[in-house]
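User: Hey, quick favor. My workstation is busy. Could you predict this chain's structure for me?
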Amino acid sequence: MPWDNNSGNNQNPWGSGGGSGKGPGRGPGGGRGPGGNEPDIEEMIRQAQERVSRLLPSAGGGSGLVVIIAVLLGLWALSGFYRVQADEQGVVLRFGKFHTQTSPGLNYHLPWPIETAVTPKVTTENLVDIGMRASTDRRSAGVTRDVPEESLMLTGDENIVDVDFSVFWVIKDAPDFLFNIQNPTGTVKAVAESTMREIIGQNDIQPILTEQRQTNEEQVKALMQKTLDEYGAGITITRVKMQKVDPPAAVIDAFRDVQAARADQERARNEANKYANRVVPEAQGEAVRIRREAEAYRAQTVAEADGEATRFASIYDEYRSARGVTRQRMFLETLEKVLGRTNKVIIEQDGQGVVPYLPLDQLKRNQEAK
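Assistant: No problem, here it is.
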């Protein structure tokens, strides 16, 4: 837009003289003042209004203001649209208080300051470490530092154990999570530390260090969930992981020596039990064998004695009925038993010569040996 040139041919846009060589807006004295032709502020405002009027659909300034207000109202109304992602949960607040809960997708709420929307992520697994902290130094990436005031705990048998563990949790109910607890991470951390101290205080140190670790993790998880549900925290504990369970650093070497001695003791006991389990059954079996052989020998001896007694009784009955015949038969049987196992030489009755005989028994034995 050309500047108004009604006051002279050599006027600059600010109304000052242009032929004196002085700067814009300066009077004859070279300074600003009533006589120095200062800029006309009202004229500048009027010119700006004219420019804005030309840009509006209507030439009237009042209609243009209505259009501006309408555009601003439209933009304000459109600001109520918001999107909830698949891993989020929408919560609408009306004047700072919970109003409604929305599902994933495109949603709308009354524009600010009437309503606002919060979209916390409900599927992201959050982590809280107790007893340890990750190093913030880039040169020590992946290294953790111990926090003794959190990790040292008293066991049920009055020992001290150093426990570092991690708690993983997700948001279960977004309104409860946003309005029932002020510091979610601090709340989870405090509940986790208190719960772990309670579980550790109920057990002896030896099971805690060895076979009871997984059981303790499950107990801590269940007790933490129960406590957070009582708080209405809107949080689900997904898992508890015990990273380190050791005696305090000041006594860990002595404790390991004790553990090694206990391991040697257990090994020696197992070897003794193994030897006993091998020797005792063998001795018991040998005792049973000897007992059974004795019982068999007793039965055999008794049976033989009974048989001899029965035989003697039958012979005695025959002897009573025919004494001569029975005596002769007994004599011959006795000679048969005695002489049957000896070498025999037949001599004549007068003793003058020896009668040769055929050694049939020796020939028979030689044939059997071949």
